[in-house]
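Hey,
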Amino acid sequence: MKRAEALEHIQKNVERLSAFDSPEYKYIPLHQKPSPSTASVREIMRLLRTVIFPGFFGTDQEAQAGSIQYYIGINLEKIYDLLHEQIYNGLCFEVERCCDSKKQASDIAVAFIDKIPHIKYLLSTDVKAILDGDPAAKSVSEIIFCYPAIHAILHQRVAHELLTLGVPVLPRIITELAHSDTGIDIHPGAQIGEYFSIDHGTGVVVGQTAIIGNHVRLYQGVTLGAKNFTLDDDGLPLDVPRHPIIEDHVTIYSNASILGRITIGRGSVIGGNIWLTHSVPPNSKILQTRAVEDE
């Protein structure tokens, strides 16, 4: 095909693809508002790792005890500047006007920075929980540096705090980055207690309204999901509590699916490959039954 003919085809498709009022593309609007930057969000998370885990992911200079406050201060200032901009973009993402959002974004960024010590405390408990429950883990340093669970939990705990502070869009970007990196999919809305551990991790899914207590351990392939959805008059799903409540000191083994707004009682053990849609009392052991073979 001659170039002139190719250009005619290109122009024809330019006209079709530019027709944003076309019923063909009714669910893909023209977006003309500020949008968060995935690259900037990744940089925020990189800087947060250097602040929360000093010496593990920064430079040799940052690892020196005598200069640690200096570098934490520099990195927190960088986090504030990047986060201020990205929160502003998030606040503007789905609204008509965002004239007052600059101050709001600044206030939220500062409020989040005040939360970082608590996030660090929670992650310290998560590292301890993994160390206590995994004989293959040789040290806390190995867990911090190598384990995908810590990477995913860090992202979720950061995203959860931002969501709690009223930031739209950004929390979901943060958890989806970890999802892509680790195969662990934890919604920022999930409430997770202290000493949380995930062993191996690949394929773990935790839904938006899940509540997880203290000292809970999940193995690979576990799903804390919804059994079904409540629909509104237009047939669209309502955002109501629909995921499990996992009480303290519960262990859920690989590929178990815990579905619906049910409660797994304190101290329970849920075996692998279990499909569970009803609540169980404290200290339950739910195991697979043996197949019954015909004689």
